[in-house]
Amino acid sequence: MTTSVRLEQPQEGFRHELYPYLGDDAFLHGALGFIQEALDAREGVIVSVPGDREALLRAELPDSKSVTFVDAATPGRNPGRLLAVWQDEIARHAAEGRPLRGIGESAWHQARTPSEAAELRYHEWLLNLAFAQSTAWWLLCPYDTADEDPASLQALTRCHPLIRRDGTAEPSADYDRDAPYTFEELTGPCGPLDELSYARGDLAAVREKITACAAEADLPESRLSELLLAATEVATNSIRHGGGHGTLRTWTQDATFICEFRDTGHIENPLAGRIRPTYQSPGGRGLWLVHQLCDLVEIRSTPQTGTTIRLHTSVGDSSQPGQ
Protein backbone atom coordinates (compact mmCIF):
# COMPACT_ATOMS: atom_id res chain seq x y z
CA MET A 1 0.00 0.00 0.00
CA THR A 2 1.39 3.42 -0.94
CA THR A 3 -0.07 6.38 0.91
CA SER A 4 0.84 10.04 1.18
CA VAL A 5 0.20 13.20 3.16
CA ARG A 6 0.53 16.72 1.86
CA LEU A 7 2.79 19.42 3.27
CA GLU A 8 0.51 22.44 3.15
CA GLN A 9 1.99 24.93 5.60
CA PRO A 10 4.49 27.47 4.21
CA GLN A 11 8.06 27.40 5.45
CA GLU A 12 8.74 30.49 7.53
CA GLY A 13 11.46 30.84 10.13
CA PHE A 14 12.93 27.37 9.62
CA ARG A 15 15.90 26.58 7.37
CA HIS A 16 16.44 22.86 6.77
CA GLU A 17 19.60 21.62 5.02
CA LEU A 18 20.90 18.18 4.11
CA TYR A 19 24.68 17.76 4.29
CA PRO A 20 25.86 14.60 2.48
CA TYR A 21 29.41 13.72 3.51
CA LEU A 22 31.86 10.85 3.16
CA GLY A 23 33.95 9.94 6.19
CA ASP A 24 35.00 11.59 9.44
CA ASP A 25 37.07 14.39 7.91
CA ALA A 26 34.21 15.57 5.72
CA PHE A 27 31.83 15.42 8.67
CA LEU A 28 34.13 17.57 10.80
CA HIS A 29 34.76 20.03 7.99
CA GLY A 30 31.07 20.70 7.43
CA ALA A 31 29.89 20.54 11.03
CA LEU A 32 32.71 22.61 12.55
CA GLY A 33 32.33 25.27 9.88
CA PHE A 34 28.61 25.46 10.56
CA ILE A 35 29.16 25.72 14.31
CA GLN A 36 31.83 28.40 13.95
CA GLU A 37 29.54 30.49 11.75
CA ALA A 38 26.91 30.34 14.47
CA LEU A 39 29.31 31.22 17.28
CA ASP A 40 30.74 34.15 15.32
CA ALA A 41 27.19 35.45 14.89
CA ARG A 42 26.45 34.89 18.61
CA GLU A 43 23.81 32.31 17.78
CA GLY A 44 22.89 29.40 20.02
CA VAL A 45 23.99 25.94 18.88
CA ILE A 46 22.35 22.57 19.60
CA VAL A 47 23.94 19.32 18.39
CA SER A 48 22.20 15.94 18.34
CA VAL A 49 24.34 13.31 16.62
CA PRO A 50 25.35 9.68 17.30
CA GLY A 51 27.90 9.16 20.05
CA ASP A 52 30.91 8.62 17.78
CA ARG A 53 30.18 11.85 15.92
CA GLU A 54 29.73 13.76 19.17
CA ALA A 55 33.14 12.54 20.37
CA LEU A 56 34.75 13.80 17.16
CA LEU A 57 33.21 17.25 17.59
CA ARG A 58 34.07 17.56 21.27
CA ALA A 59 37.70 16.70 20.54
CA GLU A 60 37.94 19.49 17.95
CA LEU A 61 35.90 22.25 19.59
CA PRO A 62 38.09 24.65 21.60
CA ASP A 63 35.20 25.37 23.95
CA SER A 64 32.52 22.71 23.82
CA LYS A 65 30.61 24.48 26.61
CA SER A 66 29.40 27.00 24.03
CA VAL A 67 27.52 24.18 22.29
CA THR A 68 24.59 22.25 23.75
CA PHE A 69 24.83 18.52 23.05
CA VAL A 70 21.68 16.41 23.12
CA ASP A 71 22.00 12.63 23.24
CA ALA A 72 20.63 11.37 19.92
CA ALA A 73 19.96 7.97 21.48
CA THR A 74 17.76 9.32 24.29
CA PRO A 75 14.46 8.82 22.44
CA GLY A 76 15.45 5.26 21.56
CA ARG A 77 14.87 3.74 18.15
CA ASN A 78 11.39 5.24 17.72
CA PRO A 79 11.65 8.25 15.37
CA GLY A 80 8.17 9.27 16.51
CA ARG A 81 9.77 10.75 19.64
CA LEU A 82 12.40 12.87 17.89
CA LEU A 83 10.31 15.94 17.04
CA ALA A 84 9.52 16.47 20.71
CA VAL A 85 13.24 16.45 21.55
CA TRP A 86 13.84 19.37 19.19
CA GLN A 87 10.63 21.03 20.36
CA ASP A 88 11.82 20.94 23.97
CA GLU A 89 15.32 22.21 23.20
CA ILE A 90 14.04 25.08 21.06
CA ALA A 91 11.66 26.14 23.82
CA ARG A 92 14.46 25.98 26.38
CA HIS A 93 16.73 28.20 24.29
CA ALA A 94 14.02 30.63 23.18
CA ALA A 95 14.28 32.49 26.50
CA GLU A 96 17.79 33.59 25.55
CA GLY A 97 16.39 35.61 22.65
CA ARG A 98 19.13 34.55 20.23
CA PRO A 99 18.83 32.95 16.79
CA LEU A 100 19.42 29.22 16.95
CA ARG A 101 21.25 26.65 14.85
CA GLY A 102 21.09 22.90 15.17
CA ILE A 103 22.99 19.91 13.82
CA GLY A 104 20.91 16.76 13.74
CA GLU A 105 22.19 13.47 12.36
CA SER A 106 19.72 10.63 12.68
CA ALA A 107 21.06 7.37 14.10
CA TRP A 108 20.86 5.53 10.78
CA HIS A 109 23.15 2.72 11.94
CA GLN A 110 20.89 2.17 14.94
CA ALA A 111 17.99 1.31 12.62
CA ARG A 112 17.80 -2.48 12.63
CA THR A 113 15.02 -2.99 10.08
CA PRO A 114 13.76 -1.38 6.85
CA SER A 115 10.72 -0.18 8.83
CA GLU A 116 12.90 1.75 11.28
CA ALA A 117 14.92 3.34 8.46
CA ALA A 118 11.73 4.31 6.62
CA GLU A 119 10.34 6.01 9.72
CA LEU A 120 13.60 7.94 10.16
CA ARG A 121 13.24 9.27 6.62
CA TYR A 122 9.64 10.26 7.30
CA HIS A 123 10.81 12.09 10.42
CA GLU A 124 13.20 14.14 8.28
CA TRP A 125 10.28 15.22 6.08
CA LEU A 126 8.00 15.96 9.03
CA LEU A 127 10.52 18.44 10.42
CA ASN A 128 9.45 20.82 7.64
CA LEU A 129 5.85 20.67 8.78
CA ALA A 130 6.48 20.65 12.51
CA PHE A 131 8.57 23.84 12.47
CA ALA A 132 7.08 25.65 9.49
CA GLN A 133 5.79 28.42 11.74
CA SER A 134 8.38 28.26 14.51
CA THR A 135 10.77 30.96 15.60
CA ALA A 136 13.73 31.33 13.27
CA TRP A 137 16.22 28.49 13.47
CA TRP A 138 18.52 26.63 11.12
CA LEU A 139 19.00 22.86 11.08
CA LEU A 140 21.86 21.07 9.31
CA CYS A 141 21.34 17.32 8.81
CA PRO A 142 24.62 15.47 8.11
CA TYR A 143 24.30 12.15 6.29
CA ASP A 144 27.19 9.73 5.75
CA THR A 145 27.02 8.35 2.21
CA ALA A 146 29.67 5.66 2.81
CA ASP A 147 27.34 2.72 3.41
CA GLU A 148 24.19 3.86 1.65
CA ASP A 149 22.90 3.38 -1.85
CA PRO A 150 21.99 6.31 -4.14
CA ALA A 151 18.27 5.63 -3.71
CA SER A 152 18.52 6.25 0.05
CA LEU A 153 20.28 9.55 -0.51
CA GLN A 154 17.74 10.63 -3.11
CA ALA A 155 14.94 9.82 -0.70
CA LEU A 156 16.49 12.28 1.75
CA THR A 157 16.93 14.99 -0.87
CA ARG A 158 13.15 14.90 -1.23
CA CYS A 159 12.88 15.68 2.50
CA HIS A 160 15.20 18.70 2.62
CA PRO A 161 14.60 22.04 0.86
CA LEU A 162 18.34 22.76 0.74
CA ILE A 163 21.51 20.71 0.18
CA ARG A 164 24.86 21.94 1.49
CA ARG A 165 28.00 21.13 -0.48
CA ASP A 166 31.42 22.75 -0.13
CA GLY A 167 30.08 25.25 2.37
CA THR A 168 27.29 26.47 0.10
CA ALA A 169 23.61 25.58 0.30
CA GLU A 170 21.56 25.25 -2.87
CA PRO A 171 17.89 24.36 -3.39
CA SER A 172 17.22 20.64 -3.67
CA ALA A 173 15.88 19.79 -7.11
CA ASP A 174 14.04 16.79 -5.63
CA TYR A 175 12.23 18.70 -2.89
CA ASP A 176 8.72 19.96 -3.58
CA ARG A 177 6.97 21.63 -0.67
CA ASP A 178 3.58 21.17 -2.32
CA ALA A 179 4.08 17.49 -3.17
CA PRO A 180 2.71 14.81 -0.84
CA TYR A 181 5.03 12.52 1.03
CA THR A 182 4.94 9.07 -0.52
CA PHE A 183 5.41 6.34 2.04
CA GLU A 184 7.28 3.16 1.31
CA GLU A 185 4.98 0.17 1.19
CA LEU A 186 4.56 -1.57 4.52
CA THR A 187 6.40 -4.87 4.66
CA GLY A 188 4.16 -7.92 4.59
CA PRO A 189 3.72 -10.12 7.67
CA CYS A 190 6.47 -12.70 8.10
CA GLY A 191 5.39 -16.15 9.19
CA PRO A 192 2.08 -17.15 10.77
CA LEU A 193 -0.22 -14.42 12.05
CA ASP A 194 -3.29 -14.22 14.25
CA GLU A 195 -6.32 -12.08 13.38
CA LEU A 196 -9.28 -10.72 15.32
CA SER A 197 -12.13 -8.45 14.25
CA TYR A 198 -13.31 -6.12 17.00
CA ALA A 199 -16.06 -3.58 17.62
CA ARG A 200 -17.66 -1.75 20.53
CA GLY A 201 -17.50 -3.86 23.67
CA ASP A 202 -14.57 -5.97 22.43
CA LEU A 203 -11.62 -4.21 24.10
CA ALA A 204 -11.23 -7.03 26.61
CA ALA A 205 -11.11 -9.54 23.75
CA VAL A 206 -8.42 -7.44 22.03
CA ARG A 207 -6.29 -7.47 25.17
CA GLU A 208 -6.80 -11.20 25.69
CA LYS A 209 -5.78 -11.93 22.10
CA ILE A 210 -2.63 -9.84 22.37
CA THR A 211 -1.74 -11.40 25.73
CA ALA A 212 -2.03 -14.92 24.32
CA CYS A 213 -0.02 -14.14 21.19
CA ALA A 214 2.62 -12.22 23.17
CA ALA A 215 3.10 -15.25 25.44
CA GLU A 216 3.82 -17.40 22.39
CA ALA A 217 6.36 -14.79 21.27
CA ASP A 218 8.06 -14.76 24.72
CA LEU A 219 7.44 -11.05 25.20
CA PRO A 220 8.60 -9.95 28.69
CA GLU A 221 5.80 -9.22 31.16
CA SER A 222 6.95 -5.63 31.67
CA ARG A 223 6.75 -4.91 27.96
CA LEU A 224 3.38 -6.66 27.66
CA SER A 225 1.77 -4.26 30.14
CA GLU A 226 3.04 -1.29 28.11
CA LEU A 227 1.88 -2.83 24.86
CA LEU A 228 -1.60 -3.56 26.23
CA LEU A 229 -1.99 0.08 27.24
CA ALA A 230 -0.90 1.26 23.78
CA ALA A 231 -3.10 -1.30 22.03
CA THR A 232 -6.13 -0.25 24.05
CA GLU A 233 -5.60 3.36 22.96
CA VAL A 234 -5.40 2.39 19.28
CA ALA A 235 -8.37 0.01 19.38
CA THR A 236 -10.44 2.62 21.22
CA ASN A 237 -9.64 5.15 18.50
CA SER A 238 -10.80 2.63 15.89
CA ILE A 239 -14.13 2.22 17.65
CA ARG A 240 -14.65 5.94 18.27
CA HIS A 241 -13.27 7.43 15.06
CA GLY A 242 -12.68 4.55 12.64
CA GLY A 243 -16.16 3.43 11.76
CA GLY A 244 -16.90 1.64 15.02
CA HIS A 245 -14.86 -1.46 14.25
CA GLY A 246 -11.43 -2.67 13.20
CA THR A 247 -9.17 -5.64 12.59
CA LEU A 248 -6.22 -6.72 14.75
CA ARG A 249 -3.38 -8.84 13.36
CA THR A 250 -0.31 -9.98 15.30
CA TRP A 251 2.92 -11.70 14.30
CA THR A 252 6.61 -11.86 15.17
CA GLN A 253 9.25 -10.58 12.76
CA ASP A 254 12.93 -9.62 13.16
CA ALA A 255 12.80 -10.34 16.92
CA THR A 256 9.87 -7.94 17.20
CA PHE A 257 6.28 -8.60 18.22
CA ILE A 258 3.98 -6.59 15.94
CA CYS A 259 0.35 -5.63 16.52
CA GLU A 260 -1.41 -4.17 13.48
CA PHE A 261 -4.73 -2.34 13.68
CA ARG A 262 -6.80 -1.51 10.59
CA ASP A 263 -9.99 0.55 10.37
CA THR A 264 -11.84 2.82 7.94
CA GLY A 265 -11.06 6.08 9.72
CA HIS A 266 -8.64 8.80 8.66
CA ILE A 267 -6.02 10.60 10.78
CA GLU A 268 -5.83 14.04 9.16
CA ASN A 269 -2.90 15.46 11.11
CA PRO A 270 0.40 13.69 10.29
CA LEU A 271 1.94 15.20 13.43
CA ALA A 272 -0.60 13.55 15.72
CA GLY A 273 1.27 11.81 18.52
CA ARG A 274 4.64 13.28 17.58
CA ILE A 275 4.31 16.75 19.11
CA ARG A 276 4.02 16.90 22.89
CA PRO A 277 0.36 17.71 23.65
CA THR A 278 -0.52 20.68 25.85
CA TYR A 279 -3.50 21.19 28.12
CA GLN A 280 -5.09 23.16 25.29
CA SER A 281 -4.52 20.46 22.67
CA PRO A 282 -7.85 19.18 21.28
CA GLY A 283 -6.48 15.65 20.86
CA GLY A 284 -3.42 13.56 20.11
CA ARG A 285 -2.74 12.44 23.68
CA GLY A 286 -3.54 8.81 22.93
CA LEU A 287 -1.13 8.55 20.00
CA TRP A 288 1.48 10.46 21.99
CA LEU A 289 1.24 7.81 24.70
CA VAL A 290 1.46 5.05 22.09
CA HIS A 291 4.75 6.48 20.77
CA GLN A 292 6.17 6.59 24.30
CA LEU A 293 5.25 2.97 25.02
CA CYS A 294 6.32 1.24 21.79
CA ASP A 295 9.70 0.73 20.16
CA LEU A 296 8.33 1.77 16.77
CA VAL A 297 4.97 3.02 15.51
CA GLU A 298 4.02 2.99 11.83
CA ILE A 299 0.93 4.96 10.78
CA ARG A 300 -0.52 4.98 7.28
CA SER A 301 -3.79 6.84 6.81
CA THR A 302 -5.75 8.20 3.85
CA PRO A 303 -9.45 8.92 3.26
CA GLN A 304 -9.46 6.29 0.52
CA THR A 305 -7.76 3.38 2.30
CA GLY A 306 -8.46 4.10 5.95
CA THR A 307 -5.88 3.78 8.71
CA THR A 308 -3.26 1.13 9.46
CA ILE A 309 -1.24 1.40 12.68
CA ARG A 310 1.54 -1.03 13.58
CA LEU A 311 2.95 -1.23 17.08
CA HIS A 312 6.42 -2.78 17.36
CA THR A 313 7.76 -4.19 20.64
CA SER A 314 11.15 -5.90 20.87
CA VAL A 315 11.07 -9.53 22.00
CA GLY A 316 13.45 -10.56 24.76
CA ASP A 317 14.05 -6.94 25.82
CA SER A 318 12.74 -5.93 29.24
CA SER A 319 14.27 -2.43 29.16
CA GLN A 320 12.43 0.82 28.58
CA PRO A 321 10.64 1.29 25.24
CA GLY A 322 12.96 2.01 22.34
CA GLN A 323 16.23 1.43 24.16
Secondary structure layout:
Elements: E1 4-6, E2 14-21, H1 24-40, E3 44-48, H2 51-60, E4 68-69, H3 82-94, E5 100-104, H4 114-130, E6 137-144, H5 150-157, E7 162-165, E8 168-171, E9 180-182, E10 194-199, H6 203-216, H7 221-241, E11 245-253, E12 256-263, H8 285-293, E13 296-302, E14 306-314
Parallel strand pairs: 2-6, 2-7, 3-4, 3-5, 5-6
Antiparallel strand pairs: 1-9, 7-8, 10-11, 11-12, 12-14, 13-14
Uncertain residue ranges? 1-12
| Overall geometric form | elongated
State which percent range the strand residues make up. Answer: 25-35%
Mean pLDDT: 89
Radius of gyration: 20 Å
Helix content: 25-40%
CATH class of the largest domain: Alpha Beta
Integer tally of domains: 2
Main sheet: strand order: 4-3-5-6-2-7-8
Quick structural gist:
Helix content is about 35%, strand content about 25%. The chain has eight helices and 14 strands. The radius of gyration is 20 Å and the shape is elongated.
Describe the structure.
With 323 residues, this protein is an alpha/beta fold. The chain has 2 domains: 4-182, Rossmann fold (3-Layer(aba) Sandwich), CATH 3.40.50; 194-314, Histidine kinase-like ATPase, C-terminal domain (Heat Shock Protein 90, 2-Layer Sandwich), CATH 3.30.565.10. The chain has 8 helices and 14 strands. The protein has a 7-stranded mixed beta sheet, sandwiched between helices. Strands 10-11-12-14-13 form a 5-stranded antiparallel beta sheet, with helices on both faces. A two-stranded antiparallel ribbon has the order 1-9. The two termini are 29 Å apart. Mean pLDDT is 89; it is low at 1-12.
